Amino acid sequence: MKFIQLTLSALLMLHAAFSSAAEVHQHQSRDIGNMPTPQITLQVFRDATDGVNVHVTTKNYRLNAPDSPIADTSTVLQGHAHIFINGEKRQRLYGEDLHIPQAWLTPGVNQIAVSLNSHQHENWTSDNNTIVGSVFINLALPSLVLHNYSSQPVALQHNHHE
Fold first, then answer.
1. In 3D, which of 82, 86, 70 has the Cα closest to residue 27?
2. Where do the H-state alpha helices sit in the chain?
3. Alpha-carbon gap, residue 53 to 56, rounded angstroms
4. 20, 27, 118, 121: which is deepest, by most CB within 10 A?
5. Which positions make up the signal peptide (predicted)?
6. Mean pLDDT calculated for residue range 22-26
7. Is the distance from CB of 96 to CB of 56 less than 8 angstroms?
8. How far apart are CA 19 and CA 35, in angstroms?
């Protein structure tokens, strides 16, 4: 019975992840073309004072502000990220780390999604798939992260919990 509950929970969260990815499409899409496909990984840590901290790791992508000196764009894509909390766009990200205050989170399960965007706010895509990372957390559980998903490369990590 517990397995069925966990399976249903996982399916609901996957549905929410893909639904949230659809919400990321608030902007036009831009295919990466022949550039190496960017990869995105999210790590979430409890903040000692309030909420959580998120570390965003990218490969084949340079996070920077629009007014940053333009780096060589012939070998790696660049741009910023959009941060979504439970499907709502909250902020832009120009570096690797961000803080999410407790006030942005709800009791129970929360989703944090990060999309990679050009400085014209277009969603970067590869093979018609938005490049996005998503993590589900529950602050009430000892193991904070429930599920971690990345569209590039497609990866899903599920933490088994009681």
1. 82
2. 2-23
3. 10
4. 20
5. 1-21
6. 50
7. yes
8. 27
What is the distance between the alpha carbons of residues 22 and 11, in angstroms, rounded to a whole number?
A: 17
What pLDDT, on a 0 to 100 scale, did the predictor assign at position 69? Answer: 74
Those residues whose C-beta lies under 8 Å from the C-beta of residue 137, and which sit 6 or more positions away, are: 44, 52, 109, 110, 112, 144, 145, 146
Q: How far apart are CA 9 and CA 160, in angstroms?
A: 11
- The pLDDT tens digits of the residues spanning 48-79 come to 999 999 999 999 999 999 887 766 667 789 99
Core vs surface per residue 133-157: b (16+ CB within 10 A) or e: bbbbbbeeeeebbbbbbbbbeeeee
pLDDT above 90: percentage of residues in the chain: 62
> Measuring CA to CA, which residue among 55, 53, 10 is closest to residue 146?
10
pTM: 0.79
pLDDT mean across residues, the chain: 82
The amino acid at residue 60 is N
Angle at 56 between CA 145 and CA 111, to 5 degrees: 40
CB-CB contact of 98 with 113 (8 Å):
no
Q: What is the pLDDT of residues 123-146, one digit of tens each?
A: 999 988 999 999 999 999 999 999
